[in-house]
Sequence to fold (297 residues):
Amino acid sequence: MIFGPDDLPNWADSHAAVPLVSRIIGSSVEVLFSGRDQSNRSQVASFELDLLTLEINSDRGLAPLLSPGDLGEFDEDGAMASCLVATESGCLLYYIGWNRAVSVPFRNSIGLAKQSDGGGFLRLFPGPILDRTKTEPHFTASSFVYRETENLWRMWYLSGTRWSSETGGARHHYNIKYAESSDGVEWLRSGQVAIDFKDSGEYAIARPWVIREADKWVMWYSYRGESYKIGYAESIDGIEWERKDSQVELEQSSSGWDSEMVEYPCVFDALGSRWLLYNGNGYGRTGIGLAVLEDTA
Fold:
């Protein structure tokens, strides 16, 4: 673990969820994450990590970089960073906005913000760019966006498939779907499933992270039946994917902060190595961990 509950900014009461690398300069990595305030509302913050020393630099007095929206808006109860895309006019942040619900715990959708000169993020629209539709009636959430050309943007996103009634309450079910856009704002959604459930015991697949390699696309994601694990898939075209979860040899620890689950991967290359940021127990309540890909040559 490299960032824990004691490292949170003053306004955050808990969680350092869904880590996201926003900038790499030498050995210094800037990481965005989502903390929760005393009202349990998600807000975006950041810290810097030195990969050589594993020391962090976090100004605990800083205000959130992106806060919840106004009363009645799609992100009234929380805004969580999901993916950052660099463009000629600045960085765009695709984020999860959520509302509390009545018959089910929440309703999620995807919003879009732009980074300001001061480092914070300003919403481009008061409403979501991806929400539930007549064919996707439940919710959308954590997205990864890849700008392949000026007129071709690709998105892999969490899509709710149903809610079920369980002993402990309503259970969410969601997989990962695929969409395309010509401008990063208006998206064409055909219902194409990218990563689907492998069996009846699996009910949640979340937080895709995609890298384009020379001869293929690769993706990391979270999947769960009993508890979250990190999965891996490969694709020739970025649309049809083959799951190869066994290739991720990152298991829960025998005890401690990530002994119950590992989830929400963010993969990046720096200093000649491939690194993985992830969350442990409690969906980010216990902090953020760092792993490095072993050299098997």
The radius of gyration is 18 Å. The chain has a mean pLDDT of 95. Residues 12 and 37 are 4 Å apart (CA to CA). The first strand starts at residue 14 and ends at 25.
